[in-house]
């Protein structure tokens, strides 16, 4: 017996044809500390045909300088937004303080996997809400209003997700999914990403992403997640450019915001208030 279509597949059938072959390239860890590498990545992506990306911005990267204290960075960020790049909230400090008596699982995930950067891995709801509210207000100071929030290393606790929903963030992503809070829909889409912290990680990343790209060829949404250090490793950066170029042969590049918005079924105006309403008063 043929299975009934899932909510995700129903939405895909209703959406514009371009969504059946979409590409989102995101640049993680954008901050004053990584601006030079981020600029180089954007310039080289433009050369191969990617004009719009999702820029995941850290407000106070490892507590080493708040973005609002760097006027030139703020102007650069506003320029990228005006060019069509999406600004996304990406944690707050992008750093997690180690706890006493942590479980073996917590140590593996937060230390080995992500080098103490899983900031939202086990935050409670109140703390998560406070950080996201603070981040949102600070972006608004330079007239930027991110609609999405993506946790560092995609590690988002259930409590933190509840905070995002209560604050009416429109979407988040994890390593293997994109969750749209407006339509309450989760789309399967594992992101390509690279780890460059050691030689064995780089070698593993090259093999894994070559395999994953082939595996995801028929997935409606292909995600390519780039971190600033990637551009400084020749073999890694070459593979990224090759895979993105191959994806562009039959995929339309867009931001997460565009993908999420266009993928939603038609819903009444009362279902979710217009984004601009969130910033009035």
Structure commentary:
- With 281 residues, this protein is α/β, with parallel strands linked by helices.
- It has a single domain, classed as TIM Barrel.
- The protein is built from 9 helices and 9 strands.
- Strand 5 and strand 6 form a beta hairpin.
- Helix 5 packs across helix 6 and helix 7 packs parallel to helix 8.
- The protein is globular, with a radius of gyration of 18 Å.
Write the layout of secondary structure elements.
Layout: H1 7-14, E1 22-30, H2 35-48, E2 54-57, H3 71-82, E3 86-89, H4 104-113, H5 125-140, H6 158-166, E4 171-173, E5 177-180, E6 185-188, E7 191-192, H7 199-215, E8 221-226, H8 234-248, E9 252-254, H9 256-263
Parallel strand pairs: 1-2, 1-8, 1-9, 2-3, 7-8
Antiparallel strand pairs: 4-5, 5-6
Short description:
By secondary structure, this protein is of the alpha/beta class. The protein has nine helices and nine strands.
Poorly predicted segments: 1-15, 267-281
What Rg do the Cα atoms give?
18 Å
Number of domains: 1
Count of DSSP-assigned helices: 9
> Quick check: average pLDDT?
86
Using the coordinates shown, work out and report the CATH topology: TIM Barrel
The count of strands amounts to 9
What overall form do the CA principal axes indicate? Answer: globular
| CATH homology-level superfamily | Glycoside hydrolase/deacetylase
Oligomer: single chain
Q: Please trace the helix and strand order, writing H or E for each element.
A: HEHEHEHHHEEEEHEHEH
**Structural category:** alpha/beta
CATH architectural designation: Alpha-Beta Barrel
Percentage of residues assigned to helices: 25-40%
What is the terminal-to-terminal distance? 54 Å
Specify the CATH class. Answer: Alpha Beta
In percent terms, what proportion of residues is strand? 5-15%
**Biggest pleated sheet:** 6 strands, parallel
């Amino acid at each position: 017996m043929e299975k009934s279509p899932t909510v995700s597949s129903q939405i895909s059938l209703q959406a514009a044809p371009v969504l059946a072959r979409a590409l989102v390239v995101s640049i993680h860890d954008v901050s004053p500390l990584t601006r030079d590498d981020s600029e180089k990545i954007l310039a080289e992506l433009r050369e191969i045909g990617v004009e719009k990306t999702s820029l995941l911005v850290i407000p106070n990267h490892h507590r080493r300088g708040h973005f609002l204290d760097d006027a030139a960075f703020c102007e650069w960020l506003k320029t990228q937004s005006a060019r069509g790049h999406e600004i996304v909230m990406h944690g707050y400090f992008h750093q997690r303080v180690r706890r006493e008596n942590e479980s073996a699982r917590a140590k593996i995930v937060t230390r080995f996997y992500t080098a103490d950067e899983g900031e939202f891995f086990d935050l409670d709801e109140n703390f998560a809400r406070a950080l996201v509210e603070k981040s949102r207000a600070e972006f608004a100071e330079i007239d930027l209003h991110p609609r999405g929030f993506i946790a560092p290393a995609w590690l988002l606790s259930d409590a933190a997700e509840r905070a995002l929903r209560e604050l009416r963030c429109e979407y988040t992503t994890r390593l293997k999914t994109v969750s749209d809070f407006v339509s309450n829909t989760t789309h399967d889409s594992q992101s390509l990403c690279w780890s460059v912290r050691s030689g064995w990680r780089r070698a593993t990343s090259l093999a894994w992403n070559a395999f994953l790209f082939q595996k995801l060829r028929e997935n409606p949404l292909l995600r390519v997640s780039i971190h600033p250090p990637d551009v400084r490793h020749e073999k890694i950066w070459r593979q990224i450019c090759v895979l993105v170029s191959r994806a562009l042969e039959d995929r339309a590049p867009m931001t997460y915001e565009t993908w999420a918005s266009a993928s939603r079924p038609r819903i009444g105006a009362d279902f979710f208030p217009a984004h601009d309403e969130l910033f009035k008063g």
